[in-house]
Design brief:
Blueprint: E1 9-20, E2 23-30, E3 43-48, E4 52-57, E5 69-74, H1 78-84, E6 91-98, E7 111-117, H2 121-133, E8 141-147, H3 156-163, E9 169-174, E10 184-185, H4 189-193, E11 202-207, H5 210-222, E12 230-233, E13 249-250, E14 253-254, H6 255-258, E15 261-263, H7 264-271
Parallel strand pairs: 7-8, 7-11, 8-9, 9-10, 11-12
Antiparallel strand pairs: 1-2, 1-6, 2-5, 3-4, 3-6, 12-15, 13-14
Length: about 280
Amino acid sequence: MNADPMLPARYLVADTRRETHDSVSLRIVPAGEPLPAFRPGQFTMLYRQGVGEIAISVSGDPSAADGSLTQTIRDVGAVSRALCRCEPGDIVGVRGPFGTGWDLESAAGHDLVVVAGGVGLAPLRPVVLGALARRAEFGRVVVITGARNPREFLFREQLAGWADDPRLEVTLTIDQPAAHWHGQVGFVTEPLARQETEPARTIAFLCGPEPMMRFSAEALMARQIPAASIRLSLERNMKCGVGLCGHCQLGPLLICRDGPIVDYETAQPLLAVREL
C-alpha cells in the first residue's frame, strides 16, 4: 500500500455518468494497490496527468466492496474540465484519504437533518446512503436539497427514489419557478424552518454555498439545535491535502487537515470575518 501521501495511486476510470450540463460522476477502481478506506465526508486530491490535481469529495459509498470510489466533479476550471472529459479506460491519479468525515457513527440514536445546496449534495450523498444502510440506528432522516432549476439537481433518478422511500422525508426545492415544476419553490431555509425538530436529539449535516450553510445553520439554531450539533463542509483552495502549503487556511484551521467537516460552533466565528 502506498505510504507516501504526496504520491498518487493509479486508478482506472470504470464508468462515467453525466449528472447535469456541467457535472459528471466518475467511478474509479484501483489499477494497483488501493488507497486506505475512506470515510463519508473525506476527499481525494484527484489528478489528471499533464493538467493538475484538485480536491474532490467522495460522492458514493466509500466502503464499496470492489474498492471503487465515486467522485462527482463540476466543470469550473482546467483540471475539473479535464476530469469531466475522462472516458472509461483512462487513468487518473488519486491521493488520500484526506480530512475529517461526517462521523455518522456518533449520530446513532439521533434524528438526522441533511441540507444540500446545488453540488453540495455530492459530499452528503454518502450520509444518506450510510443512514439507509443502517436505518434502524437513527430516528427521522430528513433530506432537503435545493437547486437553481430542475435540471441542476444531481443524482436525479436516485433523488426520485429517495422521495418515494418511506424511510426518508425528502424535500426538493428550486430557487425560482420553472415550467413543468410542481415541487416547492424557494431556498432550502424555507422548508428547513418548517421542520418540527427535537433539539436534543437532532444532528444536522450541511453542504453547499457558504451563505446557504450560514443561513441554514441559523435557522436550525433558531429551533434550539446547538451549534455543536450542526456539521458543515467547508471549502477552501486546497493544494497539498496534508496541511503543509497553507493555501486552505481559515483562521486557526487548515481545512484539508482540520476540515472539511467541522461543527458550526467552530465555524461560526470564522465565517463571520469577511477577510477569511
